[in-house]
Amino acid sequence: MQAQFNQASAYHKSGQLDQAEAIYRELLVSEPGHPALLARMATLMQQKHQPGEALVYIEQAIKASSGDPQLLHQGFQIASQAGRNDLAERWLRPILEQQPENGELIEQLAGVLIGNHKEKEALSLLKEAIKTKPQSASAYNLKGLAMSRLGDSEKGYKNFQKSVKLNPGQLGAVKNLLTYGKGKKEPILDQLIPQLEQKLRQKGLPAVAMMNMAYVVSMYYEKKKVAKKAFEFLKMGNDINRRSYQYAHSDTVNHFEQIKQAWNGELRDAMKEKGIADASPIFILGMPRSGTTLIEQILSSHSKVEAEGEILDLKAAFEPESKGLFSRDTSDKVSANIRAAKNYIESVRQRNQAEFFTDKLPYNFIMIGLIALAMPNTKIIHCTRDPVETCFSIYKQNFSGTHPYKNDLKELGAYYNEYQSLMTHWNELLPGRIYEANYETMVDNSEAEIARLLEHCGLEMESACLGFHKNKRAVRTASVAQVRQPIYKDAKKASSAFTEMLKPLIDTLNGKAD
After folding, report:
1. What value does the mean pLDDT take over residues 176-189?
2. Distance separating alpha carbons of residues 324 and 396, to the nearest angstrom
3. How far is the C-alpha of 435 from the C-alpha of 291, rounded, in Å?
4. Burial class (CB in 10 A: 0-12, 13-18, 19+), 415
5. Contact between residue 454 and residue 437 where contact means Cβ atoms under 8 Å apart
6. Region of 16 on the Ramachandran plot (φ > 0 left; ψ -120 to 50 alpha; else beta)
């Protein structure tokens, strides 16, 4: 084994990842629980930009090693990269227990807690971190983020200002100043952004640093209404991001086709009166950046509704039942749908006992069949927005986690078209079951649309829903700055200055692209 391991390590070190992977896999057949092998495979999968596979291997390595601190830290890094803050928290806490005075670990845990909707606990940690290290720019940035998400925008913004003054090179804080500083002039940004622009033009930086820097510079120029420069750096960031992973649109087409075939008229008829009665979930779904956060902010302002945000409980209930859900046997599919729904409700109910709760994970649109048939009394709110505006807004976001279709304008348009095709399938299969909440209509006639939305959900009008921007609940998405303000019309035609640059996207959406 040692000779093979050494050979695989040599391949790995020299960048011959496929050769290294072949040997590691061969060795794992004979020693499936070997922590070092599993950890190497996790690293290799991370290098091949397959974060899901990397997580599987590192989780096995951690279990096999009984919590080795080095593997726990590797697991934390992989989980953070994959957007799995739940695992990142699980693996970081025991390391911090062993090193309670480690300020860097404290800040890392605070960042993970914010990602896990535990802003108050994060603020408590950050208070102690700042006492110990009062010049920590990253601690002030995290404190500002936690405060902003909890609704204290002014104090949050002051923390971003302090962070940037302490360390102007901290891109996260610069981004937050731009995100939360609507209408505010920041002289420090006027000095800093040209310096970042110069670094980008010189190149030579690591790819990830260049990518993050490009998104920030683009945000600045868009705020300044300098469309040409804004798009130049936006495209730079997306192009760098796209080169870091493999994606084939045909995989999306095949996946959505499997979904359509699995949830069909035969299954719908077989599941009549067999679903679970629970009516507490309100699913808010659609493409990212289509207004889902706005709708959740309105509904969660109601006294009977509690916001859960972008939770993964439905996905977690779906995946273990996938064999049954896609079975050719209709009775197997019925049973699997019911089990998944029950597991979902039980999972959420462990932490939430409200009469109604919102689940606003946008990609739940893929699982509308499961939702509608297995939970027939739930409400499904499909958020829509002008296709170009939706896609352009997605293209502008430097999302965490995996959104592999979003960095190329043609692929983005093609994905959107597949999403629309799937929604057509759901509406034909489930006529009248899905409520459409259109962003532009909401902006143009908010009071009437809010009343209509509440009526659909069986909720009486409450004045707090009209003043949703005053809702102090935690908001954790890219729309947090917008939903802290009354409805405004700026975003209705945000793409208008970029029409020519977005031609590949527009042509694809219109079916004109190759």
Report:
1. 86
2. 38
3. 14
4. buried
5. no
6. beta
**For residue 159, what are the contacts with CB-CB under 8 A and spacing of at least 6?**
140, 141, 143, 144, 147
Given this model, what pLDDT does residue 291 score?
A: 94
Rounded alpha-carbon distances, angstroms, from residue 296 to 151, 444, 468: 15, 18, 9
Give residue 484's pLDDT: 43
pTM, rounded to two decimals = 0.84
Average pLDDT of the chain to the nearest whole number? 92
Strands 379-384 and 356-359: unpaired
Q: How far is CA 115 from CA 109, 126, 352, 442, in A?
A: 10, 14, 18, 29
Give me the phi and psi of 438, to 5 degrees please.
Answer: -90, 130
265: left (phi over 0), alpha (psi -120 to 50) or beta: alpha
Question: Which three-class secondary structure state does DSSP give residue 225?
Answer: coil
Scan for tokens 């998104």, then name that residue. 215
Phi, psi of 380, rounded to the nearest 5 degrees? -120, 115
pLDDT of residue 173: 94
Residue 8 has pLDDT above 50, yes or no: yes
Q: What mean pLDDT do residues 302-323 have?
A: 94
